[in-house]
């Protein structure tokens, strides 16, 4: 009689490898999502920002808003991009600091994703 295959025990090498793979996959999907939100938000803030700000001003009671004009904060955008690229370089050159570099990359992606909202707030304050 043959015995049925046994399941790997929790904490064994088989489950650790699977957990590590799933964690990396979810982390990569989160990073792609944040960078996609940054790209879409930047384009939306550039082309629709003044109109969205005027609509928000009208919604809050300003019946005659002025069309705001404020340049996009490209300096902050480039700073976020530089931190992201620097974290990738750090991860490649120093594998011991890969976890820190990955966290820094996620922080830069979240910063870039939130930057369009700050631009919309600036435009709203100018109406």
Radius of gyration, in Å, reads 22 Å
Number of E-type strands: 0
Molecular shape: elongated
Largest sheet: none
Our count of domains comes out at: 1
Global mean pLDDT: 89
Query: What multimeric state do the chains show?
Result: single chain
Give a written overview of the molecule.
- The chain has one domain (33-125).
- It is built from 3 helices and no strands.
- It has helices at residues 13-59, 74-93, 98-125.
- Helix 1 runs parallel beside helix 3 and helix 2 packs antiparallel against helix 3 (98-125).
- The longest helix is centred in the N-terminal third of the chain and has 47 residues, at 13-59.
Write the layout of secondary structure elements.
Elements: H1 13-59, H2 74-93, H3 98-125
Q: Care to give the gist of this entry?
A:
The protein has 127 residues and is mostly helical. The protein has three helices and no strands. The model has no long low-confidence stretch (mean pLDDT 89).
Task: For the structure shown, list the relevant keywords.
127 residues, mainly alpha, 3 helices, elongated
